[in-house]
Every structure is written in structure tokens, then in C-alpha cells.
């Protein structure tokens, strides 16, 4: 089998007419537009969902950061409180019989 | 409505004008259907694939810049959607003589014994034989052979439609031709033995 033989076959195949005409099924355009609009609404809902998720993540991060700083600050207070308690205990030991 | 050009229809469809969107479907349907018929996987119906392509077109319509003709932009979506569908099907490993009709076998014999152009009454059998041979190829090779030889498109046009580089198109066409020739030789050997 040579290249020219394949070319002859392909040329003959290319000349063969389509047996069925290209005709749009009834109502196809309406169905496609309705489906794409529905998908479009789905996409809008998806975009809204993404925004909500983004805002929620930001709130979680801020709340976590706040809680972390608050915890650290409370830690300082607790430490300071302990120091006062030790000093108070030492004074009491000194003063009281 | 018939006087409106494609760009106007696209803009109107983007503004949720359903009549413009339907008109766009009606105008593009022959082009899409033709592409689908050429590249349709065996297990997917033509109408389903057309619908899938149109929904993708509407989803991406806002990305259409107007720098290229709408037909090229749409063709690329159609070809890529068909390719994705074809990828899901396995390539048939080999074509046997028994898979061919008597007319297709006669075409193979004719190719071997004569160097003249095939007779017009052999065109349909030739087409069926080529379609059988295309099923042996990889999806991208199938698309290249179809566009290049059956639809008579130039390499440059195929580049615009598919996005493949010119070199890749030529390499794929060459490889596909080699495979098709090898298959035809095998069938020819079976026919003569």
C-alpha cells in the first residue's frame, strides 16, 4: 500500500455526500438556552457561595487571631497574678507569727 | 433578527436576551452538527453532544473577545469537547477483514490492483472504510485526518480551530497516515489470502 493509494481512498471518502441533512431538532434552541440559563443561575449561586465561604474564612481567621492574642494577654495577667500571690504569701509569712 | 451579525447576537445573549441566544443556536447549529458528525464518539448521540457543546459555548460566551471569527472560536470548543468525549472511549486495537462490508472489501481490493481514481459508486464505501480506519487512531489523529483530508481544511485553519501547533498537526497527520496504511496492508493481505 502506497501513499498515493491512501490519498485515492481519502479523496474518494471526502467526495461522499452526507446521507442525512443537518437539521436542528424541534425545540433544540429553546432547550439549550433554558439549560444554559439554569446553569448560569447555578454559576451565580456558586459565586455567591464562594464569597460567603471567603467571608466566613476571614471571620474565622480574625476570631482565631483575636482569641490567640487574648489568651496571651490573659497569660500575662495570670503570671502577674501569681507574682502578686507569691509576694502576698511572702509578706504574710514575714508579718504573721 | 436575521440582519443582526454574530457579534450583536453575542452581546444581546450576554444581556439575557433569550431570542438572540436562540437565534445564535439556530445559526451555529449546522456548523456544530457537522463537527460533531465528524468527531462524534460511538457511544454518544449527536444531539446530546451538540447540546453539551452549546451549553459550554454559553458558559464561556463572556470570554469571546471578538478578535477571532465566532465560527473559529465555536469550532475550537466543539473540537475540544468531542476530543474529551472520544478520550473516554478505548481505541479499537485492530481492524479485521470480517469487520468490513463487501463494498468496503471491494474498495481495498481496488486500491491494490488499480492505480486509478475510485469510481463514484465506491464513494460511500470509501467513506465507511475510512471511518473504520479512523477508529484505530488516537482521538487527536482522528481529528487531524478528518479536518485535513475529509473536510479539506488547510494546516493553518486546523491550527486556528484546534489550537495545535502546525508542526504537531503535520507530525500527527504523518503518524496517522502510517497507521492507516499499515491497517490497509493487513486487510489487503487477508483479502488476497
- So what's the oligomer here? heterodimer
Measured between the Cα atoms of the first and last residue of chain B, the distance is 62 Å
Largest sheet, strands/sense/barrel of chain B: none
Number of strands of chain B: 0
Indicate the overall shape of chain B.
Answer: elongated
The secondary-structure element order of chain A is HH
Class by SSE composition of chain B:
mainly alpha
Largest interface: A-B, 33 and 45 residues
Strand content of chain B: under 5%
Tally the helices of chain A: what do you get?
A: 2
What is the count of helical runs of chain B? 9
Rounded mean pLDDT score of chain A = 82
Taking the sheet with the most strands of chain A, its summary is: none
Secondary-structure element order of chain B, N to C: HHHHHHHHH
Name the beta content range of chain A.
Answer: under 5%
Number of strands of chain A: 0
Written overview of the protein:
The complex is a heterodimer of chains A (97) and B (193). Chain A is mostly helical and 97 residues long. Chain A has a domain at 58-97. Chain A has helices at 3-15, 28-95. Chain A starts with a helix and ends with a helix. The model of chain A has no long low-confidence stretch (mean pLDDT 82). The model of chain B has no long low-confidence stretch (mean pLDDT 86). Chain B contains 9 helices and no strands. With 193 residues, chain B is mostly helical. Chain B starts with 5 loop residues before the first helix and ends with a helix. In chain B, 70% of the residues lie in helices and 0% in strands.
